[in-house]
Amino acid sequence: MKILRTYISVFQRLIGLVNSPDETWQKIDEENSRKQIFGLFFYPLLLLAAGLFFVSKIAVFQDVNITKATLETIFMAISFLCAYFICKKICQATTKQIYKIELSDIQLDKIVIYALSVILVVKVLAELLDFQFMNFFWLYSAFIFWKICDVILKLQDDGKNRELFLIINTLSVICVPFIIEYILLKLFI
User: Which of 74, 142, 154, 181 is 20 to 30 A from 121, alpha carbon to alpha carbon?
Assistant: First the structure.
């Protein structure tokens, strides 16, 4: 029952990021523990995404090579976990360089985890539905960073600095997981 409530909460949070981002970001801003961010959101989402990704490889594409499908699933999960650490460092560096502010670990976790979650969901849905047009929804992460500037960082619109922050961090959360996954796939498959 607790697991079901956790997944319902994950779905509500994801839907909130799309339907009512201002309200959802206010709730996210109130989260003050890594357990809420990771244990109750990111890890369950990553586990669900990996399961759906595996199912899409086996059932949808009827890829009978279970070993290959398993490795691709593991590499997808590893790439998003590694991307978290890299994107967190990039976000920390950009806020320090551009805005001259030092963010707490919790703030950085919120920023990176919720931005990566959008990319993760889009990747899995594009794979599951075999609808590559969905990949354009990666750009929604730019909107996520726009909201981050308002809610988490509490920054006013300052033109070029905001645009630079958006471009660097959006590109990092879009590109880093896929670069890592590409490298792993080329090395091991």
Answer: 154
The confidence score (pLDDT) of residue 157 equals 62
CB 95 within 8 A of CB 153: yes
DSSP letter assigned to residue 134: G
The proportion of the chain whose per-residue pLDDT surpasses 90, expressed as a percent, equals 47
Give the start-to-end residue ranges of the domains of the chain: 2-188
**Which pTM value belongs to this model?**
0.90
CA atoms within 13 A on the CB side of 67: 2
- 183 vs 189: CA distance, rounded Å: 10
Report the C-alpha gap between 16 and 87 in whole angstroms. Answer: 23
> Cβ neighbours of residue 70 under 8 Å, at least 6 residues apart?
54
